[in-house]
């Protein structure tokens, strides 16, 4: 059996599966976040796209848009990494819900950074839990790390990982709604063997 | 002032005075600006990985420091530059996250910078200035007319090197 999987020829089914995984993961995250923030937040996955590197910037609102990126390594049956990206405005809004207030401007203070990491942890953790449940594969996330910077710079990290395998990035857009609509993005970067494992365990292959 | 031409990730473009070239949000990637100071023809490459020979699927030349720099130089020369006069400025190669522990990602920013410097040295193109490393993203704009390499980063003053 060929372990070399070409990301570019991935079938529609795989995208639908990732979207479904995203929805289920979003469902898990909603419950956890709602508990943490004390309010109801709806999450859904409107789009899963395979983009060329040069398209990613505009897909997320511009390479220079300042965003928060939560990044973790994934180990176990699946190896790779996962990133969750959130525009500053959305991050401030969620922190505001958690802490009852936020600081002015585009920067975050220590407490807010801590809260952000925790929120990012819950969101990525939920996504990985649902992936694990659906595939029956052991997925162990590392401690998350956080960067607040231009989207292009943050994205360079998973982009480079994808770059070792091909010339595209898989972008999963997630929409959050409490009293306002916000968009966040997941980028899951399993290595090639892990992609094969995921497909096989889902019976697509 | 002319047009500013945008260069994406794993991409390269040439331009002539008075135009400029820009690339946005360089993280662990490296931006390499090269020009001929006499004919004022130049270009910018945005590379992502150090070494095309280490990757099986390596047909995308601008993605790698070695093949990307070679291709950029070829194109600049085609536009009317003298190979012997070429000079370079570089930026990027940051470590965006404290840990990046997958084998190919460890210190990738630093390795991109090393590979860039090695390739430019091999091609005898002197590096006149650099703004590399650290842990933040950079946007760069390069003008072959003056050789100005403008660097912007969040929370920092804009600088020209």
Structure overview:
The complex is a heterodimer of chains A (205) and B (161). By secondary structure, chain A is an alpha+beta fold. Chain A has a single domain (7-201), classed as CheC-like (Chemotaxis protein chec, 3-Layer(aba) Sandwich), CATH 3.40.1550.10. Chain A contains six helices and seven strands. Chain A has helices at 12-37, 53-59, 88-99, 110-135, 151-163, 192-201; strands spanning 42-52, 66-76, 80-87, 139-141, 145-150, 168-177, 181-190. In chain A, strands 1, 2, 3, 4, 5, 6 and 7 form a seven-stranded antiparallel β-sheet that branches. In chain A, β6 and β7 (181-190) form a beta hairpin. Chain A is globular, with a radius of gyration of 16 Å. Chain B has 161 residues and is of the alpha+beta class. Chain B has a single domain (4-160), classed as 60s Ribosomal Protein L30, Chain: A (2-Layer Sandwich). Chain B has two helices and ten strands; from the N terminus they run βββββαβαββββ. Chain B has helices at 65-78, 108-122; strands at 4-6, 11-16, 20-26, 30-36, 41-47, 87-92, 127-132, 138-143, 148-152, 159-160. In chain B, the strands form two sheets. Chain B has a five-stranded mixed β-sheet, with no helix packed on it. In chain B, strands 2-5-4-6-7 form a five-stranded mixed β-sheet, with helices on one face. In chain B, α1 (65-78) crosses α2 (108-122). Chain B is globular and about 45 Å long. Chain B starts with a strand and ends with a strand. The model of chain B has no long low-confidence stretch (mean pLDDT 95). The chains are: A alpha+beta (205), B alpha+beta (161). The interface between A and B is large, with 37 and 34 residues.
Characteristic terms for this protein:
heterodimer, A: 205 residues, alpha+beta, Chemotaxis protein chec, 7-stranded antiparallel β-sheet, 6 helices, globular, B: 161 residues, 60s Ribosomal Protein L30, Chain: A, 5-stranded mixed β-sheet, 2 helices, 10 strands
């Amino acid at each position: 059996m060929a372990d070399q999987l070409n990301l570019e020829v991935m079938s529609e089914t795989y995208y639908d599966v990732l979207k479904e995984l995203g929805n289920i993961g979003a469902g898990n995250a909603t419950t956890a976040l709602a508990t943490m923030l004390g309010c109801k937040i709806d999450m859904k996955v409107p789009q899963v796209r395979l983009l060329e590197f040069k398209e990613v910037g505009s897909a997320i609102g511009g390479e220079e848009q300042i965003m928060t990126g939560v990044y973790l390594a994934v180990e176990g049956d699946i190896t790779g990494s996962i990133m969750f990206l959130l525009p500053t405005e959305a991050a401030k809004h969620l922190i505001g819900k958690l802490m009852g207030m936020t600081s002015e401007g585009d920067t975050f203070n220590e407490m807010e950074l801590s809260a952000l990491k925790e929120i990012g942890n819950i969101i990525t953790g939920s996504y990985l839990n649902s992936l694990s449940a659906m595939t029956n594969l052991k997925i162990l996330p590392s401690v998350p790390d956080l960067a607040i910077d231009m989207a292009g710079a943050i994205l360079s990290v998973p982009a480079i990982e994808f770059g070792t395998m091909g010339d595209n990035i898989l972008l999963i857009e997630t929409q959050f709604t409490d009293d306002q609509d916000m968009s966040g993005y997941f980028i899951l970067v399993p290595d090639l063997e892990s992609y094969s494992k995921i497909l096989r365990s889902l019976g697509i292959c | 002032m002319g047009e500013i031409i945008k260069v994406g990730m794993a991409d390269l473009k040439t331009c002539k005075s008075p135009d400029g070239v820009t690339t946005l949000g360089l993280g662990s990637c490296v931006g390499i600006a090269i020009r001929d100071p006499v004919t004022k023809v130049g270009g910018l490459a945005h590379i992502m990985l150090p070494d095309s020979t280490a990757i099986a699927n390596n047909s995308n030349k601008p993605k790698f420091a070695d093949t990307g720099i070679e291709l950029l130089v070829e194109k600049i020369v085609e536009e009317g530059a003298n190979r012997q006069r070429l000079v370079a400025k570089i930026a990027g190669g940051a470590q965006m996250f404290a840990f990046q522990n997958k084998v190919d990602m460890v210190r990738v920013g630093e390795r991109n910078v090393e590979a860039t410097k090695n390739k430019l040295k091999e091609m005898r193109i002197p590096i006149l200035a650099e703004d590399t490393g650290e842990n933040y993203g950079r946007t760069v704009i390069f003008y072959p007319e003056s050789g100005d390499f403008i660097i912007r980063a969040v929370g920092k003053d804009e600088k020209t090197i």
